[in-house]
């Protein structure tokens, strides 16, 4: 029994270690949270320079400083529970959102595997914002498409 355990324990450890990075790359749902609209990169680009449109970058401050969508504001969603599966246990400063509940608000992260923008868009809708949009493809697709970025 001990010999069997000593053979399988390194295999189990290797399996768990190689599976962890993959677990962190779980795509967000293809459907947005209820009442939230998914918008494409091109739609976001068209909205960007209109009045009463707010773009919030949910990536870490370090990534934001390296480059962000023009006019985007860094808004950090801090996870309060560190687990391999995703949940909405986080801290968010909702006071940074506009007072106007009818303003167009766009949330984005790195891309489709970034859950912070998903949960933030849901939280904004639940807080009574009427025009919440989720740029699911995120900053990486924006930059790869050749649209302007600020640093």
Helix count, per DSSP? 5
Strand tally: 7
Second rung of CATH, namely the architecture: 3-Layer(aba) Sandwich
List low-confidence stretches: 4-23
Strand order of the largest sheet: 1-7-6-2-3
SS class: alpha/beta
First and last CA, distance:
59 Å
Give the biggest beta sheet.
5 strands, parallel
Q: How would you name the CATH homologous superfamily?
A: Rhodanese-like domain
What's the domain count?
1
Work out the radius of gyration. Answer: 19 Å
Which percent range describes the beta-strand content? 15-25%
Q: Topology as H/E string? A: HEHEHEEEEHEH
CATH topology: Oxidized Rhodanese, domain 1
What is the CATH C-level name? Answer: Alpha Beta
Query: What is the average of the pLDDT values?
Result: 82
What is the approximate shape? globular
Percent helix, as a range, is 25-40%
State the main characteristics.
alpha/beta, two-stranded antiparallel ribbon, five-stranded parallel beta sheet, 5 helices, Oxidized Rhodanese, domain 1
